[in-house]
C-alpha cells in the first residue's frame, strides 16, 4: 500500500474520531438534572430540609424527633400537702393521657423532697421503682400515700441524687428528662441556685441542655398563695417558690400554682412541654398564604387551626403548633406552599 493511501486512511480515522467526540459533547450538554424524591429514612435525622421545588410550588420536609422521655416526680409529702396530694391523684390521668396521645416511650419515677433517713428522698420509691406504659400507671400516685415527712423540702438536692445515680436504668442518657416538683414550700437544698442549674443542665453532656425540663406545681410569685377553701386556716398557704420558679424559667419548663383547685390544665401543659417535641418549623422560603398552605403529618392533613392544628407565623416564616396538637414522635411533616414573589 502506498504512503499516499496510508495518509488518506489516517486522515479519515482522525476525522471520524473528532466527529464521535463532538457527538459525545453534545449529549453531555443536553443532559438535565431531575429531582428524585425518596422515601424518608425515619432513623436518619438528616432528612430534614427542602424536598423538591417546581416553579413556585415548594415542599419542605421535617422530622419530629423519636422522643424517649424519663419523668421524675419530686413530691412534698408534708402534712400541709394532704389536700394537694388528693388533687394530683384525681387529675394524674390527664398527664398520662397526654403522654399516650404523643406516643412517647416514657419511664416514670418518684422521689420525695425529704432527705431524712426514712423520708424517701434522693432515691426512687415504690416497686418496681420505674414504671413504663406497659404497667398500671394509676398505681403511680398511690406512692404518695406514705407517712408525712419531717425533713426540709429539698426538691433540688433530692432530684440531683436520683438522676446522677443512674440506678434502675433511670434516667436513660439519650432520653429527654423531665423533673416535676410538687410542693407548697420553696426549695431548701444546701447548694446554690447556680450549682443545681449546672448539675441538671450538664447531665446529658455538652450541648444537650435542651434535653432537660424542670417544671413545678408550687407557690405563686411574688407572695405565695392560699387555696380558697382554706383561707380561714392559719398557715394554710403556700410560700412563694422563688428558687423553683427560677429553675423552671432557666430550663424552659412549666410553672403551675399549687393552690389551683384543679391541676388538670397544668398537668396537660406540663405533659406537652416535658416531651420536648418541636412546635415550630421554619420554612426554607417565604410562603404566600393567599395561595394556600397544606401541612401533613405522616401523610395525614392537619387542619389550620391555632387551637387544634397549626398556624403560619409570617414574621418568622414558620409553621407553628401552639395549641393542643403537636406532631407525634418519629413522624414526618410535609409543608406544601407557594413561594411569595
Features:
341 residues; alpha/beta; Rossmann fold; five-stranded parallel β-sheet; 6 helices; elongated; disordered N terminus
Give me the secondary-structure topology:
Blueprint: H1 3-30, E1 49-54, E2 57-63, E3 68-75, H2 82-101, E4 105-112, H3 155-165, E5 176-182, H4 193-201, E6 212-218, H5 242-251, E7 255-257, H6 264-274, E8 280-282, E9 293-297, E10 300-301, E11 311-313, E12 318-320, E13 332-338
Parallel strand pairs: 3-4, 3-5, 5-6, 6-7
Antiparallel strand pairs: 1-2, 2-13, 8-12, 9-10, 9-13, 11-12
Helix pairs in contact: 2-6
Task: Give a verbal description of the structure.
By secondary structure, this protein is an alpha/beta fold. It has two domains: about 45-65 and about 280-340, no CATH class; about 70-275, von Willebrand factor, type A domain (Rossmann fold, 3-Layer(aba) Sandwich), CATH 3.40.50.410. It has six helices and 13 strands. The protein has helices at about 5-30, 80-100, 155-165, 195-200, 240-250, 265-275; strands spanning about 50-55, 55-65, 70-75, 105-110, 175-180, 210-220, 255, 280, 295, 300, 310-315, 320, 330-340. Strands 1-2-13-9-10 form a five-stranded antiparallel β-sheet, with no helix packed on it. The protein has a five-stranded parallel β-sheet with strand order 4-3-5-6-7. A hairpin with a 4-residue loop joins β11 and β12. The relative contact order is 0.15.
- Quaternary class: single chain
Instruction: Please indicate the percent range of residues in DSSP E strands (runs of 2 or more).
Output: 15-25%
Principal-axes geometry comes out as elongated
Helix content: 25-40%
Biggest sheet: strands, sense, closure?
Answer: 5 strands, antiparallel
Total domain count: 2
**Main sheet: which strands, in order across?**
1-2-13-9-10
What's the CATH class label of the largest domain? Answer: Alpha Beta
Determine the mean pLDDT: 84
* Gyration radius, rounded: 30 Å
Q: How many strand segments? A: 13
Number of helices: 6
CATH architecture of the largest domain: 3-Layer(aba) Sandwich
CATH superfamily of the largest domain: von Willebrand factor, type A domain
Kindly, what is the distance between the CA atoms of the first and last residues, rounded to a whole number of angstroms? 72 Å
Low-pLDDT segments, ≥5 res: 1-10, 12-47, 51-55
Q: What structural class do helix, strand and pairing data support?
A: alpha/beta
The sequence of SSEs as H and E is: HEEEHEHEHEHEHEEEEEE
The CATH topology of the largest domain: Rossmann fold
Amino acid at each position: 500500500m502506498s504512503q499516499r493511501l496510508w495518509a488518506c486512511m489516517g486522515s479519515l480515522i482522525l476525522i471520524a474520531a473528532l466527529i464521535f467526540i463532538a457527538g459525545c459533547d453534545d449529549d453531555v450538554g443536553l443532559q438535565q438534572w431531575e429531582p428524585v424524591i425518596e422515601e424518608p429514612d425515619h432513623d436518619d435525622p438528616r432528612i430534614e430540609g427542602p424536598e423538591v421545588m417546581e416553579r413556585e410550588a415548594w415542599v419542605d420536609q421535617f422530622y419530629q424527633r423519636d422522643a424517649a422521655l424519663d419523668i421524675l416526680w419530686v413530691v412534698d409529702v408534708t402534712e400541709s400537702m394532704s389536700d394537694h396530694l388528693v388533687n394530683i391523684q384525681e387529675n394524674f390521668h390527664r398527664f398520662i393521657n397526654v403522654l399516650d396521645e404523643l406516643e412517647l416511650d416514657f419511664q416514670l419515677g418518684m422521689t420525695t423532697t425529704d432527705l431524712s433517713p426514712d423520708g424517701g428522698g434522693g432515691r426512687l420509691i415504690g416497686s418496681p421503682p420505674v414504671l413504663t406504659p406497659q404497667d398500671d400507671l394509676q398505681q403511680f400516685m398511690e406512692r404518695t400515700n406514705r407517712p408525712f415527712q419531717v425533713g426540709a423540702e429539698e426538691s433540688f438536692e433530692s432530684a440531683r441524687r436520683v438522676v446522677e445515680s443512674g440506678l434502675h436504668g433511670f434516667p436513660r442518657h439519650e432520653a429527654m428528662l423531665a423533673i416535676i416538683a410538687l410542693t407548697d414550700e420553696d426549695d431548701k437544698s444546701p447548694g446554690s441556685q447556680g450549682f443545681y442549674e449546672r448539675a441538671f443542665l450538664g447531665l446529658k453532656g455538652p450541648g444537650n441542655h435542651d434535653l432537660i425540663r424542670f417544671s413545678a406545681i408550687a407557690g405563686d410569685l411574688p407572695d405565695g398563695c392560699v387555696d380558697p377553701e382554706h383561707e380561714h386556716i392559719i398557715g394554710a398557704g403556700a410560700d412563694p417558690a422563688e428558687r423553683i420558679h427560677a429553675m423552671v424559667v432557666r430550663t424552659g419548663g412549666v410553672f403551675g400554682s399549687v393552690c389551683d383547685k384543679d391541676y388538670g390544665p397544668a398537668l396537660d401543659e406540663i405533659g406537652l412541654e416535658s416531651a420536648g417535641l418541636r412546635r415550630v418549623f421554619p420554612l426554607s422560603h417565604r410562603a404566600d398564604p393567599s395561595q394556600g398552605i397544606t401541612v401533613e403529618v405522616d401523610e395525614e392533613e392537619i387542619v389550620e387551626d391555632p387551637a387544634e392544628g397549626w398556624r403560619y407565623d409570617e414574621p418568622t416564616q414558620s409553621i407553628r403548633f401552639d395549641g393542643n396538637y403537636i406532631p407525634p414522635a418519629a413522624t414526618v411533616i410535609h409543608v406544601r406552599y407557594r413561594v411569595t414573589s
